[in-house]
Amino acid sequence: MAANSRPFKEAVYAELARLGKAMGNPRRMELLDLLSQGPKSVEALARETQQSLANVSQHLQTLLDARLVKFYKRGNYSVYQLADDRIMDLLLKVQELGEWLYRAIETERETWIQPLDSHMPLTADQLSVLMKDSDVVLIDVRPRDEYEFDHIPGAWSIPIEELEQTMAKLPKDKQIVAYCRGRYCLFAAEAVQILRRHGYRAVRVEQGVREWRRATSVSGGRIVR
């Protein structure tokens, strides 16, 4: 007679459901996406997501309980990061699956990005080929702390809020390629709009450093152990 496996199955699926429950909230998904760019304090996450410190702390506690994030102390600040590089891989897979299942995601992207930059963006693979050309300058328009945590080799750090004040150092005889956090970030599209308005040849990369590393199999980023 076969053993009753129901208790075993219930125990296993209850544990797996913790993952879905923790990620099953739009605010927590956004927090995980931000943390995939590098470690951030609770205060920085609150500013980025325009939430209160109390709300962010509550969401982070849920993610911590599910072992999706961890934190360390930096003076009086608690700094959070992804618990493991595999969490980043999971996020990218969820985004890919979500876009395949739900057309509304792509519709929202087009609604926000098209007015800024209607030109065809580069893929991570195309960027890898283009970077072999000395007539290209790659700029990372994310916040500088994210650039310092990880960036595409050879990229210049020019945060989007500093671009108009510092663009004079960019050569006008070369093509400028901008990238940011990835497909759900508007910084690169905004950068291309600004650069073209000032007479630069500019194009954006649709993916960010995470996708580029996965496409090129180049390791990077540093999860603090």
Q: Quick summary of this structure?
A:
The chain has 225 residues and is an alpha/beta fold. It is built from 11 helices and 7 strands.
Give a verbal description of the structure.
This protein has helices spanning 6-23, 26-35, 42-49, 53-65, 85-101, 103-113, 124-130, 144-149, 163-166, 187-197, 209-216; strands at 40-41, 69-74, 77-82, 136-140, 156-157, 175-179, 202-204. The radius of gyration is 20 Å and the shape is globular. It has eleven helices and seven strands. Strand 2 and strand 3 form a beta hairpin. The termini are far apart. Helix 5 (85-101) packs across helix 6 and helix 7 crosses helix 11. It is α/β, with parallel strands linked by helices. It folds into two domains: 11-88, Arc Repressor Mutant, subunit A (Orthogonal Bundle); 105-219, Rhodanese-like domain (Oxidized Rhodanese, domain 1).
Task: Please outline the helices and strands.
Elements: H1 6-23, H2 26-35, E1 40-41, H3 42-49, H4 53-65, E2 69-74, E3 77-82, H5 85-101, H6 103-113, H7 124-130, E4 136-140, H8 144-149, E5 156-157, H9 163-166, E6 175-179, H10 187-197, E7 202-204, H11 209-216
Parallel strand pairs: 4-5, 4-6, 6-7
Antiparallel strand pairs: 1-3, 2-3
Helix pairs in contact: 3-4, 5-6, 7-11
Pfam family, one: Rhodanese
Keywords: DNA-binding, Transcription, Transcription regulation
InterPro entries: ArsR-like_HTH, HTH_ArsR_DNA-bd_dom, Metal_resp_trans_reg, Rhodanese-like_dom, Rhodanese-like_dom_sf, Thiosulphate_STrfase_CS, WH-like_DNA-bd_sf, WH_DNA-bd_sf
